[in-house]
Amino acid sequence: xxxxxxxxxxxxxxxxxxILHEYGHALxxxxxxxxxxxxxxxxxxxxxxxxxxxIARKQFWEGLHQSHPSEISLSRGQRAAILLGGVGxxxxxxxxxxxxxxxxPNPVMQFLAQPFIQVSLIFILFNLLPIRLSSGIASDGLxxxxxxxxKNQHTS
Length: 156
Known about the structure:
Elements: H1 2-31, E1 35-50, E2 53-68, H2 76-103, H3 107-128, H4 140-149
Antiparallel strand pairs: 1-2
Helix pairs in contact: 1-2, 1-3, 2-3, 2-4
């Protein structure tokens, strides 16, 4: 029973971790001068829209951050910062929860902290894999690989 409950809690932390990840990209983009256009969870017509944030039913396990282009082109380092912003947010979130669990060592906190930290680690590792997602979009890891190892990669 403990195993099933643990996995249900991990599943419950998936969407907050995905949202945290996408807002990490948005914050990194903002730090290099880009404005947030939208954050979408899933594909297709959204069934929920709140300002720039939307959730759709198709491929709801994927997220996408979009920012307005600025007048100045971005360097490879700035583009890399945006790509790493998502996993950076997951890392910071996981470390923050770990610190909270150490500061407040009660059974409920310990029980909830472990699955959140594990989901954060899964997000970090999975997003750094150089793969194409089911929607055809390149993962953060694949975009980083293309950014630094493709000779014809241009900045924009």
